[in-house]
Amino acid sequence: MTNGFFAMLSRMKYINRWGLMRNTRSENIAEHSLETAVLAHALCCIENTYLGGNLNAERAAVLAMFHDGTEIITGDLPTPVKYHSTQIRSAYAEVETLAAQKLCAMLPKELSGTYAALFEGTQPGDEQLIPYVKAADKLSAIIKCMEEANTGNREFKSAEATLRQSVADMHLPAADYFVENFLPAYGLDLDELNR
Asked: How many other C-beta atoms lie within 10 A of the C-beta of residue 189?
């Protein structure tokens, strides 16, 4: 089928994340992708403003918007399964590639290359941005863990600790800056944020 690409993308709102966890509020990949895009943009702006970088923050945001787009077809494979072994990781990467190809086949051929490059991160300069998108993805997951903790749900406690360590292990100064200067505000309630 051709020209169904954008209609398929709109189905991101039906794919829930954190399938193995008890959630007080479900999160879908559409809202996660938007948050990841905002965070990837912020990380690049932090890099450019405070750390002497020269990154394309807008391109990073767009890459982040599409980073989980293939999950429309594959679903959200839980992290413990996805990273259980190198064989599963390799097989899942192949499934993601096939899913991206299937989605891009729903576009007129003149547009398919543009969107394939978003799924693959293959435009010149994207290799510099991918670590910021990955860090933003992890930060979005940390924020979800914090939100769940704020409701009294302890289900996400271990996930949050693991994710925080994962971000620290990236040794990405912009992410460290965000964790120190912006992440604590996600633990505040609305009145505290407005003070």
From this structure: 8
